Amino acid sequence: MNLNIEAVNMVRWLHFIALAVGGGAAVVTLLLSGFEEDREDLRGLAATVWSKVVAWAFRLALATGVASLFLVMQNGSNPMKNGSYFHIKMLLVLLLVGLSEMTPKSLAAAKRGSALLVLVLFLATTFTVFNKGLFGARPKNTLQVPVSAGAPSAQSAPVLPSQTPLKP
Q1: Nearest one of 79, 66, 116, 82 to 96, comparing CA atoms
Q2: What is the per-residue pLDDT for 159?
Q3: What distances in angstroms separate CA 69 from CA 75, 149, 168, one per listed residue?
Q4: How many other CB atoms are there within 10 angstroms of residue 74's CB atom?
Q5: Cα–Cα dist 158/163, whole Å
Q6: Which residues contact residue 58 at a Cβ distance below 8 angstroms, ignoring those fewer than 6 apart?
Q7: Does 82 fall in a domain?
Q8: What is the pTM of this model?
Q9: For the chain, how many structural domains are there in total?
Q10: Residue 149, helix vs strand vs coil
Q11: At 42, is the pLDDT very low, low, confident or very high (cuts 50, 70, 90)?
């Protein structure tokens, strides 16, 4: 059993958890904002939940994403040279985080437009991540063949029927 934990994997896991919490809480907050119209006791709850949960989850996701980028670059890989996928993703992420910071004020004023736009940007970003090939990402060449595997040895070479000597 291998209990080696690499920093890149831990940071990516935190990044995924932060995105899952932020995206899920954004949907819940939009649902809450719909109930605020009818119930006086719920007014302002959507803005509070957004500023305390959604905004912080997206901030943590941005921080762990930047940390993951630096860790990957320290290992010798450069995702910025992998087509236009990374640049599209970063543009969507910056728009998402920027708009997420402005959303609590609009939710407090009972306007859901920016919250809906953040959710659409979240969905567009996840679509971009899971469909990298559509945006010019080249597949990683992760298969490394050992040097000794290239030349067949005498012990491992298959013997074909045409190679066996004929006995008289």
Answers
A1: 116
A2: 55
A3: 10, 33, 69
A4: 10
A5: 10
A6: 18, 19, 22, 96, 97, 100
A7: yes
A8: 0.73
A9: 1
A10: helix
A11: confident
